[in-house]
Amino acid sequence: MTPEPRYQWGQRVRAEIDLFNDGSFPDQPDDALLVKSGDAGEIVRIGLHTETNRPVYLVEFAEHRVIGCLEDEITAL
Q: Which of 13, 18, 23, 31 can pair with 74 through a Cys bridge, CB separation 3.0 to 4.6 Å?
């Protein structure tokens, strides 16, 4: 059974932790700081991490950087 997402498309959120490059941004060094804890963004898409059956939120932060976040990595503004 797929859990209901806690957050909705278009919702403003804040990063709860520093988010680092996990290899998803080849133009950035591995482990580069992408978003600082406290930075605000907006959810632009909601997907599902198929291996863990958890919602994944694509959040657009400053400079149009879109990063996949799990529920424990963001909080509603």
A: 13
